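Design job #97: recover the sequence.
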């Protein structure tokens, strides 16, 4: 069927599909390269005696790591918090502290001589390979289609522009208008402003005199009416606002200004612009996510070797089980098959497709987490295998945390495989939808937007799955697999109804309000991770919401793990 299509049409939709995949692949490749460079740099620094032995001196190591974490958190918070007026901006503190802790302890254990000796084992062991293979495979496939990418050089040139500040300021003096003439007769003077109209996102102008801004020196050649700027009345314009912008943006014919007063004028013009390809920002963002994921694994492995040994054994055992392979195969087939399913939404099939696939990935992740908790915790306790493991120099705390960490790595690998495939197929869905409805093939930026808006919901659903995994581990210390499945399913249903129940009880009596609040304490509010409304409306998920969800997940998961440790401490394993 492909050969029957006109060559230009084939190239068009192939370019639209492959360009977002290529951007994703470049980000993944950059993340892998940066990880290798950081690991190599740490290996070189480990040859310095003080740094190479720092991790062995725990008080000093904790001090250095803590100082790095605090400095990063304070510096990042002082940069990000003043830029936002949202009352929820304080939720950024815990995620920034988590990143700072990763940087601090990552540096301490990264420059450890033992880490340099263990690098080969780290790269070859199961979990790291399971994380590396889907990332590398997606990167290779994406880079192989570089010949079909639209403007790859322009995209790469936009990467540094997207990272640095796009704000430029000009101080412009204007000569006074002739005192013996009418203000209308004052000349329009051309002002040198180096900006591209199509890239401007915001303009801020402050003047101390009345000034007219036009797009030509001769009033007979104006394309738009001149913009009048009044003294001491700052003009703030953003793209998308109603009204005329203070500078000509329809064409780059130049900027001409007329001082209508007999005193010199002084203008301050601030222009914020976007890079030629704003989508290029995804490349460093994806690279940062890859570096954070891989360095988190290396840091945890070296910082807690006993916990990591239990986690590695648990993850390798669960990934080798038929259930994991079944979930991966069924999930991949379903994600690819659902692309061809018409949802009868009159041109909006992409939204139910994304919602269905993300829900499927989440359900498979929860099923894998609960099954892993039952098989690796409950069955080992009942089968006395846990007693054998705990006879070694491993405490019950390390055993249980290692089990949870291993289950988390298993779920992350599952989400990574299915999530990357979903991003690839999401880029194709708008093309398929356009061909089915006989409409024009969309631009690649449209397909990229659908891909970019899929990542935050996947991250939220991953948090929800890891939260339910903590609950499953806590239940597995006392109950078998079947009871664990029933309880986790009940918590999932009730947790998604917690927020509506509390809102409906707002105007009721004190007893109803008490039980509503008690429910929010005992049962996690999983509705916080529900992204169906955002996906259906096409609304982007702000960073502050992700930070708030991360804070909630971290605090509730920590509380659940503390309860799990209490339940496991007095459990008779004999």
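Job complete. Output follows.
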């Amino acid at each position: 069927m492909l050969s029957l299509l006109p060559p230009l049409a084939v190239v068009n939709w192939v370019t639209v599909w492959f360009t977002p995949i290529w951007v994703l692949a470049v980000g993944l490749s950059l993340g892998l390269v940066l990880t290798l460079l950081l690991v190599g740099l740490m290996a070189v620094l480990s040859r310095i005696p003080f740094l190479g032995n720092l991790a062995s001196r725990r008080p000093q190591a904790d001090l250095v790591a803590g100082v790095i974490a605090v400095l990063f958190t304070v510096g990042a918070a002082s940069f990000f918090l003043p830029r936002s007026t949202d009352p929820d901006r304080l939720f950024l503190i815990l995620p920034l502290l988590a990143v700072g802790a990763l940087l601090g302890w990552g540096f301490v254990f990264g420059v450890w001589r033992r880490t340099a000796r263990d690098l080969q084992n780290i790269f070859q062991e199961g979990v790291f390979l399971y994380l590396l293979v889907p990332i590398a495979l997606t990167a290779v496939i994406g880079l192989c289609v570089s010949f079909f990418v639209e403007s790859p050089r322009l995209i790469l040139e936009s990467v540094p522009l997207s990272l640095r500040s796009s704000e430029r300021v000009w101080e412009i003096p204007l000569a006074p208008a002739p005192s013996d003439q009418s203000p209308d007769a004052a000349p329009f003077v051309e002002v040198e402003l180096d900006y591209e109209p199509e890239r401007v996102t915001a303009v801020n102008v402050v003047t101390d005199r009345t000034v007219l801004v036009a797009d030509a020196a001769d009033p007979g050649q104006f394309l738009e009416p001149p913009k009048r700027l009044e003294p001491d009345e700052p003009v703030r314009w953003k793209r998308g606002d109603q009204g005329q912008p203070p500078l000509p943006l329809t064409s780059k014919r130049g900027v001409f200004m007329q001082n209508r007063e007999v005193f010199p004028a002084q203008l301050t013009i601030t222009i914020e612009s976007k890079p030629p390809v704003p989508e290029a920002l995804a490349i460093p963002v994806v690279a940062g996510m890859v570096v954070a994921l891989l360095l988190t694994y290396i840091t945890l492995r070296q910082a807690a070797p006993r916990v990591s040994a239990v986690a590695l054994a648990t993850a390798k055992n669960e990934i080798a089980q038929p259930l994991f392979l079944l979930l991966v195969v069924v999930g991949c087939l379903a994600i690819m098959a659902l692309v061809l399913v018409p949802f009868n939404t009159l041109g909006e099939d992409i939204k139910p497709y994304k919602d269905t696939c993300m829900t499927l990935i989440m359900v498979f992740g929860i099923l894998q987490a609960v099954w892993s908790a039952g098989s690796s915790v409950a069955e080992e306790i009942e089968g006395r295998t846990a007693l054998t493991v705990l006879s070694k120099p491993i405490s019950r705390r390390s055993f249980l945390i290692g089990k949870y960490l291993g289950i988390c790595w298993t779920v992350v690998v599952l989400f990574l495989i299915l999530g990357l495939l979903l991003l690839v197929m999401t880029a194709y869905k708008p093309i398929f939808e356009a061909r089915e409805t006989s409409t024009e093939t969309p631009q690649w930026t449209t397909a990229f937007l659908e891909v970019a808006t899929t990542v935050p919901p996947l991250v939220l659903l991953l948090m929800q799955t890891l939260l339910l995994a903590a609950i499953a581990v806590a239940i597995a210390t006392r109950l078998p697999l079947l009871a664990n499945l029933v309880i986790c399913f009940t918590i999932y249903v009730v947790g998604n109804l917690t927020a509506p129940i509390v809102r409906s009880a707002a105007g009721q009596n004190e007893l109803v309000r008490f039980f509503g609040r008690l429910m929010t304490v005992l049962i996690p509010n999983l509705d916080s991770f529900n992204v169906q409304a955002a996906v259906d409306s096409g609304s982007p998920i702000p960073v502050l919401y992700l930070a708030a969800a991360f804070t909630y997940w971290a605090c509730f998961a920590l509380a659940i793990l503390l309860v799990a440790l209490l339940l496991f401490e007095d459990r008779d394993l004999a």
